[in-house]
Design a protein that fits this description.
The protein is of the alpha/beta class and 365 residues long. The protein has 2 domains: 208 residues, TIM Barrel (Alpha-Beta Barrel), CATH 3.20.20; 129 residues, Lyase, Ornithine Decarboxylase, Chain A, domain 1. The chain is built from 12 helices and 19 strands. The chain has an 8-stranded parallel barrel, surrounded by 6 helices. Strands 10-13-16-15-14-17 form a 6-stranded antiparallel barrel. Helix 1 crosses helix 3, helix 4 packs parallel to helix 5 and helix 7 packs across helix 8. The longest helix is centred in the N-terminal third of the chain and has 14 residues. The two termini are 25 Å apart.
Length: 365
């Protein structure tokens, strides 16, 4: 039989989470962000759950081709724009919208021969300091784009650095407002955290919101808020089975480095999942896990192909018992990926995107 591990992609949860983005920003259109192969879920697998979006936002041309191959005829936005001049040829052929964040991209457009003018999103660096024109250079960039026959419409966007944190977004909202005042064009400011926390605030409400991590069932401001607070549902479940049970006596150790030592007799279960499957290697002993839908904890270090769990709350657990590493258990119990990531010192994005190719994936709902 195949090794007992699989990932489930819940299309119903994807559709539900997209609806939550619409509810948070009822007057805006919604980009479903599917970069990084739909955050590890698979563009083709996630498409059915996200096709209710107004557009798809992603990073590279290969992803854009995959979206078009699925039959999507609506807007597709390249979030980092073109990487070289010849990328514009495919933008013309596939009718892709693209971000412009530096002068060279305007130069390429000026030299591009196309029968169909392009829709572009001029990106302002309002304080994130990754991509975008400085506020003082924004109007000149807009004027250059507006004068080009290769450009049909110029929209405006920025990206928040602290929408999920204490510093907040007021300073970036002010910078964006000052730099774009009186310029025409649709606006897009809010990522997932800003959509949930600020989307209807003055200066933030805009024409488009970008539903990224929230679409996949991760709270963008965890641990301040969790999935239940935002009404989100896990879109991915990683589940396996127990393949062995070991009795321990007081003083027995578990795994490499003997980092866990039993202080009393106990039973542990060995799970067919490890860091080669995408489970975080640095998840600390004590990371939450569900066995037959009952919450327990990992013990010891995560190995390449296995990890161990405490069966103290589950005296009946045996080889074959279901283990939910994150997502939804068979009895409906939920373990958010954010909890697992937090125990590994990271965020939910990382284990989602790290799901290994050797793990079979099945679409449900």
């Amino acid at each position: 039989m195949p090794r007992p591990i699989e990932a489930l992609i819940h299309t119903g949860a994807l559709a539900h989470n997209l609806a939550r983005a619409r509810a948070a920003a009822p007057d805006a259109k919604v980009w479903a962000v599917v970069k990084a192969n739909a955050y590890g879920h698979g563009i083709e697998r996630a498409f059915a759950g996200l096709r209710g979006a107004d557009g798809f936002a992603l990073l590279d041309l290969a992803e854009a081709e995959r979206i078009r191959a699925l039959g999507w005829r609506g807007p597709v936005l390249l979030l980092e724009g073109c990487f070289e001049a010849r990328d514009l040829e495919l933008c013309s052929r596939l009718n892709l919208w693209h971000v412009v964040h530096r002068d060279a991209q305007i130069d390429w457009l000026a030299q591009h021969k196309t029968h169909q003018p392009h829709r572009v999103f001029l990106k302002l660096n309002s304080g994130m300091n990754r991509l975008g024109f400085a506020p003082a250079a924004c109007r000149a960039a807009w004027a250059r784009l507006d004068a080009l026959p290769q450009v049909a419409e110029v929209s405006l966007m920025t990206h928040f650095a602290d929408a999920d944190g204490a510093r907040g977004i007021a300073h970036q909202v002010a910078a964006f407002a000052d730099a774009t005042r009186d310029l025409p064009g649709e606006r897009s400011l809010a990522n997932s955290a800003a959509t949930l926390r600020h989307a209807q605030a003055a200066g933030v409400a805009a024409d488009w919101v970008r539903a990224g991590i929230m679409s996949y069932g991760s709270a963008p401001d965890y641990p301040e808020h969790d999935l239940a607070h935002w009404g989100l549902r896990p879109a991915m479940t990683l589940r396996a089975q127990l393949i062995a049970v070991q009795p321990l006596q007081a003083g027995d150790t578990v795994g490499y480095g003997s980092s866990f030592r039993a202080d009393a007799p106990m039973r542990i279960g060995i799970v067919a999942c490890g860091y080669a499957d995408g489970y975080p290697r640095h998840a600390a002993s004590g990371t939450p896990v569900l066995v037959d839908g009952v919450r327990t904890r990992t013990v010891g270090r995560v190995s390449m192909d296995m990890l161990a769990v405490d069966l103290t709350p589950l005296p009946q657990a045996q080889p074959g018992s279901e283990v939910t590493l994150w997502g939804v258990a068979g009895n409906g119990a939920v373990l958010a990926i954010d909890e697992v990531a937090h125990a590994a010192g990271t965020i939910g994005y990382e284990p989602m995107c790290a799901l290994a190719a050797r793990v079979p994936v099945r679409v449900v709902d």
